[in-house]
Amino acid sequence: MNPARRRAIFRRLQAANPSPTTELLHETPFELLVAVMLSAHTTDKSVNGATRKLFPVANTPAAIAKLGVEGVKPYLKTVGLYNTKAKNLIGLAQQIIEQHGGEVPDSREALEALPGVGRKTASIILNMVFGQTEIAVDTHIFRVANRTGLAPGSTPRAVEDELVATTPKEYMKDAHHWLLLHGRYVCVARVPACPKCIIADLCEYPNKTPPKALDKSDAPVVRRVGPRPRSDPKLARPGASPKAGARPRATSRTAAQSRTSVARVPDARRSTTRKRKRAAVGRLI
User: Catalytic: 267?
Assistant: First the structure.
C-alpha cells in the first residue's frame, strides 16, 4: 500500500471518530490494567459486567490483594478463564505493591513481568496511560491490517512492527483504537460489511462483500442501522425501502378503512350467532 492511500485511510477514520478510546470501563490506570488483563479471550461486555461489581468493592492493588483468589473469583464469573485470571489478578496486585509502590509501572519490561500481562496489554497501557506511541495488535487489528493491506503479516508481532513502521506519526497515538473499532463493528471476521465501510474504496481486500450479500453480515453496523423489521411505523426511516416479500404499508386512508373493516367483523359474527341461536330455539319449540 502506498503512503498516500495509507494516510487517506487514517484521515477518514479520524474524521469519523476524532477521539477514539477503549470500551472497557475504567477511571484509573490500575482499573484499566485490570480490565485489559481480564479481556484476554473474552468480550469487553463480559469484562465490564465483572468490573461493575468488582471496582466498587476493590479498585486498588491493596484492596484487590486483600480479597485473595477465592474472594475475587465470584466477581469474575462472567469472564472466560476466570479461575486463572483470578490467580493472575491477585499476583499482579501483590507484585505492584511489592515492586512498584502500588503504582502501575511505566516500562514495557516491568509491565510484561506482571502476572497475566503480555505484550498486547503492555502496549495498551503504555499508549493510553503514558502516552507512548505503541500499537497493540489484537485479533480485530490483525484482521483489518491484513485485509486492507495496511500492514500484512503472518503474526501479530509482524503486523505490529509494520504498523509502527508505516503509520503516519500524527495518527500513531489513536491508530490502535481506530483499527480495533473498525474490525469490531464493520470489518468483522465472517462477512465484512463492505458496503457500509467508509474506507471501502481505499481498501485493497479483493473479496469485498457485495451490497446484495450485506444482509448475511453479522457486523454491528449492519444490525444497528441496516434494513430490519420494525413493529412501529413511526420508527421507520424516511425513504426506507420495504423488505422483500413484505406487504406495502397502508396509506392513512387505507389504514382508516382497514380499522373500520376490522371493527365491523365482530358485529357481523355476533349477528350470525344470534340468528343461529333463534333458529335452534325455534326448532326446539
Answer: no
Is 3 exposed, middle or buried, given 0-12, 13-18 or 19+ CB atoms closer than 10 A?
exposed
pLDDT at residue 146, rounded to an integer: 96
For the chain, state the CA radius of gyration: 28
- In this structure, how many other beta carbons lie within 10 angstroms of the beta carbon of residue 28? 13
Predicted TM-score (pTM) of the model is 0.72
The H-or-E segment that residue 224 falls in is helix 220-225
Distance between CA 277 and CA 44 in Å, rounded? 66
Domain boundary residue, one of 169, 185, 201: 185
Residues 3 and 121 occupy one common structural domain: yes
Task: Choose, from 77, 85, 87, 138, the residue flagged as catalytic.
Answer: 138
Catalytic residue, from 45, 77, 120, 267: name it: 120
Known catalytic residue: 138?
yes
Lowest mean pLDDT among 36-45, 53-62, 72-81, 232-241: 232-241
Answer whether 36's CB lies under 8 Å from 121's CB: yes
Three-state DSSP at 117 gives coil
263 inside domain: yes
